[in-house]
Amino acid sequence: MPQRRHRPAPVRILRRLTPIAASLAALVGGLMLFQDEGAQYDLPAYPLLRGSAEGSLLFPRGPVLFSIEAPDILFELNPVAEAQGYTIILRAHAGGAFAEGSRVTELSGDGPELALGEILPAGHYTWEAHATVNGLQQPLGERDFEVRRNEALLRELGGQEPYERVRSLHAAGYWTDARAAARHLPPSSERDLYLGSNPGR
What integer pLDDT is reported at residue 170 of this predicted model? Predict the structure, then answer.
């Protein structure tokens, strides 16, 4: 007479499944924690702009935050092939399409990044750039920017972590300041990707 197979009791089945469920829960929790930690270091991307947004003159552009705590402005250009040097001419003006303005300073250097090294008062500015190629000056164009006072934004930034500060500045349209803040971040692929990109690409 055939013997009936013994069926495991529900309690025994639950006991067997409990370690598996615990392992799955730990795995899911670990993945969520990893994603949260990864999101903490994410940096934003620039929108792809066309027309006048492209060109050799990258930053500064648009609004620039006035702050005596971070006075330095870095002029960034797309490198020019076979250039032996670069020149920046900065002018201040009252704003408007036909404002000529007065010269503030002139910078020269071997590379496509030149630091201003001084505090600019709030106001409207235009910078033009030239590259020296085979001993001849090659004009690269002009770009406007405006140094603005924004006390509310400065207060908001004061209580933020470094990565959050970059995201806040970028979201508010202060791209030049966001890049300045990103340069102070620890080396990382996210930092390099952000600083290596611009609105034209």
Answer: 98
